Amino acid sequence: MNSDKKTAGEIREFPESQNLNRRDFLATSAAFAFAGTFNPGLRSASGHSTASGARHQSAAATSSKVQRVIIDTDPGVDDSIAILLALRSPELKVEAITPVCGNVPLELTLPNALRLVEIAGRTDVPVAPGASHPLTRRLVTAKSAHGNNGMAGVEFPAPATKPSRESANEIISRIVRENPGEITIVALGPLTNIATVLRADPEISAMIRGIAIMGGSLSGGNISPSAEFNFYVDPEAARIVFDSHIPLTMVGLDVTRKVLLHEDHVKLLEAAQNPVSQAAGRMMRATIERMRDSHNPPAMAMHDPLTVASLIDPTILTLRDFYVEIETSGELTAGESVGYQRVPMHKSAPLETSEPEPPESVQTFTPNARVGVEVDSEKFFNLLIPRLTEAKS
Question: Which of 19, 36, 80, 340 is most exposed, with minimal Cβ within 10 Å?
Fold first, then answer.
């Protein structure tokens, strides 16, 4: 890494995410929700973006075109595979990569992202540092799964490429505002960066084409009984994103647990003689070997690569409309994503108070996300492995 590269202590963080207590968070979130719902220039009377339906139609109509994406990520082994897949897929134009803390701290996810653009020969893609901690919580990492360096313990050379002078907040805002309705955000880590952008600039939600999210689950968690890791790390950020009225696709554990990379896949990666395949093979070999002590055959779920692959080939996933809410207050359930397909739905019974009960309102079911419920695993791997192993001129 160049001597003038920013150190972890010099990386710019979002001021909105610093020293924020829960009371400040709730107040800010309430203001954000009010602005997003009642700004007549942005929202319809129903509270939804007037551009939302049009954007869904536009996405369907232009699925054959190159999609312009920003990858928000916390690499991470499977994040690394997902980034390499995106950078080697002509269907996607990666406008920027915005590392965030998550699987490992930001001082590792940032250089990891820089290493990946170098391995892929894509140093034209800017890498902009994001948040170093969740909005209101202490950072919990997943080093046990991704190794102390986030790349399964495999040592790669320090990157020579420098990060962007813009922060993640700045580069996301600039690219989206310069290209309204054109940019899809691919969210592979905790949603801290995206939530921070939305709180700082509520009007930008109407300009984002959509967000493809690796996160959540309708069938139990992987770090707690209730929560998937990305939402567990920053539940408050996830709630802001799911309340934003941006078209969302949730690729959660319900489908990612079904795309398991095995020994045979690793051998294919190792056999190909190109930098991307060799790097992917080294990381996956180290991961597989670390798993051999378990009682089950070693395999790793391709959470983040599935999210990227579903943009390249939407037929890999079956999606259904849900209304998804994110639990933030439960000691045992924070980060849980609760999805339902009908109304009325009731939250916990009200506490006994002297206040009169409000009249029940008539609820109309309006989904806020399309959620992956089924996956074609064979089709996924038939896309992933050739993209990583084929030689590039």
Answer: 19
Token pair recorded at residue 174? 């600039």
Annotation marks residue 303 as catalytic: yes
Q: Are 332 and 213 in contact (CB under 8 A)?
A: no
Tokens for 384?
A: 């992933």
Two tokens at 205? Answer: 């939600």
* Total length of the chain: 393
pLDDT tens-digit readout, 29-72:
434 333 333 333 333 323 333 334 334 433 433 445 899 999 99
* Residue matched to tokens 């590039």: 392
- Which structural domain range is residue 237 located in? 54-342+364-389
Kindly tell me the burial class for residue 364, based on how many C-beta atoms sit within 10 Å of its own C-beta (0-12, 13-18, 19 or more). Answer: exposed
- The model's pLDDT over 130-178, given as tens digits with 9 standing for 90+, comes to 999 999 999 999 998 999 999 999 999 999 999 999 999 999 999 999 9
Give the DSSP H or E segment for 184: strand 183-187
Active-site residue, from 56, 262, 303, 346: 303
356 falls within a domain:
no
In whole angstroms, what separates CA 177 from the centre of its chain? 20
Task: Determine the pLDDT at residue 350.
Answer: 75
Q: For the chain, how many structural domains are there in total?
A: 1
